[in-house]
Amino acid sequence: xxxxxxxxxxxxxxxxxxxxxxxxxxxxxxxxxxxxxxxxxxxxxxxxxxxxxxxxxxxxxxxxxxxxxxxxxxxxxxxxxxxxxxxxxxxxxxxxxxxxxxxxxxxxxxxxxxxxxxxxxxxxxxxxxxxxxxxxxxxxxxxxxxxxxxxxxxxxxxxxxxxxxxxxxxxxxxxxxxxxx
Length: 181
Known about the structure:
This protein has helices spanning 3-22, 36-39, 50-66, 87-92, 109-117, and strands spanning 29-34, 70-74, 83-86, 97-98, 121-124, 131-135, 148-151, 157-158, 161-168. Strands 1, 2, 3, 4, 5, 6, 7, 8 and 9 form a nine-stranded mixed beta sheet that branches.
């Protein structure tokens, strides 16, 4: 199996693990942050790789479509960690669209590939996602609803990149007499 095929399978496995516990409903938002540099074993932002990005998209996008989710891909710091989403997602959630098009050196390879695969891609500055997958410690927590809950996956790395995941839950409010579901 080629190295890119291994990355595709690892990405699929990571997302399957998250979906198995996140309890996402159709049209909810899945945030993915990805450093292809980290996947390749390099320092974040130093070796953006379109082939790796395409391999990871191949492992994740079919599951996202199959589960009728909105994908939100966080770009790098050069576009202020703005996110690529479908225009329909921006409209449904009342998100403000900003003027930038990601590319390999500003936004990153995974954002660029996302721009290519979505039907009507737009970029939004912020979002409140329902679950997230972070490939390479890109810090997607800023784009998740409160309260984020870590999800332990069966896979801890994609390529050489550390992988974390989270789902969200409603806040627990009240005092000692409160009851929760």
